[in-house]
Amino acid sequence: MIDYHIHPNYSSDAEGSIDEFCEVALEREFREICFTTHLDTDTVRNDAYVIVRGKRVDVRSGSWLEDYENSVRIAGDQYRGQGLEVRLGVEVDYYPGVLDHLPERFHDTEFDLVMGSTHLVDHLAISVKEESHEFFSRNNMEQMGNIYFSLLMDCVESGLFDILGHLDLYRRYGEEFYGGKIRSLWKAHVSDLARGMKRFNVGFEVNTSSLRKGMDEPMPESSLVAALRKEGIETVTVGSDAHRPRDVGKGIEIALKIIRECGFDSPSSFDKRRASPFVVQESS
Ligand SMILES: [Zn+2]
Ligand SMILES: [Zn+2]
Hints:
Layout (H helix, E strand, L loop, with lengths): L1 E5 L11 H10 L4 E8 L9 E4 L2 E4 L4 H18 L4 E9 L19 E5 L2 E2 L2 E2 L3 H9 L3 H17 L5 E2 L6 H8 L11 H10 L3 E5 L1 H4 L9 H9 L5 E4 L12 H10 L6 E4 L2 E4 L7
Parallel strand pairs: 1-2, 2-5, 5-6, 6-9, 9-10, 10-11
Antiparallel strand pairs: 3-4, 7-8, 12-13
Helix pairs in contact: 1-2, 3-5, 4-6
The protein binds zinc ion (ZN) (2 copies).
């Protein structure tokens, strides 16, 4: 089994060291995990920092990235012999202009995976209930969909990313705001989005954090996973979005079942940003 979305304690919303996450992954007999620490750089908000050994560090300084890269590689060397592959990834919070705000050393860092996630619209976090409702109250559902998917398209066309994170995140608080009809919002956008993804060689993840937040499906929901496959997307990963060691691998079996049912032979794993199929053994 693999888990391609894990947050160690370099961000203030996560707890647990790289080692602690690896230990749980080993215990649960995972064969591969990818750390994807947050890279939030929007200075209009006050979360553009990371935590290194208990201290706040400006996210745009390169020193933390060096520390993060070294720590993940050390874990990789340490756990490989025990049957666990540890990958170096990052979850970049996408917003227009982000490319000018990346940390020093970003392009010198040998990431295995660079994931682009759209949490922010007009500096409001749609992953946070109050902020999402503020954004939603300014737009009807169609307008919101146009804004969100155009942002997602910009994210794809930036050329920076290997995969899109939780691509229907708007659903987390959007369903209670707009009602159940939001579940077909993607239909007007999926063909354009998939065209862009193919052109820029961008895949997506099936993110199971929604299952721990009371939603009935991972993100994106299975109908959208099936539609993306039908549109010709071939690269998909699965991730728990664990922010605590005890959540490592949660829901991954459900995500794997969904991608199989939607026509993907296997999830992809990434080595230095090159995707290859990860063969899931029934016993692992
Ligand atoms: Zn995210
Ligand atoms: Zn995440």
